[in-house]
Amino acid sequence: MKALVVNGPNLNMLGIREPDIYGRRTYDDLVSLCRDAGGQAGFDEVEVVQSNHEGDLIDMIQQAYGRYDGIVINPAAYTHTSVGLLDALKAVSLPAVEVHISEVDAREAFRQVSYVRGACFATVTGEGLEGYAHALRLLAARLSAR
Length: 146
Ligand code: DQA
Known about the structure:
By secondary structure, this protein is of the alpha/beta class.
């Protein structure tokens, strides 16, 4: 069982960007957390990727087809704008979980809109970096139930 964890713009700045919202742990900490939590959830492989560019994120989702069993995705700012990411998730039709570090539904109105949500079977918000562990457990449970 293989999972791809896709991270959008500015998540490489974790630990530096708005620590009152996103905490002090770094992107490297997030990568380690995903690998550890994914292993505990039963994944043989968890690859964690990040890009600041919408088209690169679309390429990463397309390349997951046939290589990964499911996707955990934090599209960051593109959550609220990108039909392209929604369509890419629909195109590969892999089980996907949307994750956000912050409680997006309790923030500005523009953050309460998610395009990718329409292609995800679950959404995890407001659990900090641990939300990725939660999302990986949800994905593992979904894949095991197939
Ligand atoms: C975020 C929330 C988004 O609104 C924001 O643009 C991000 C991070 C989160 O993880 O809480 O970059 O996706």
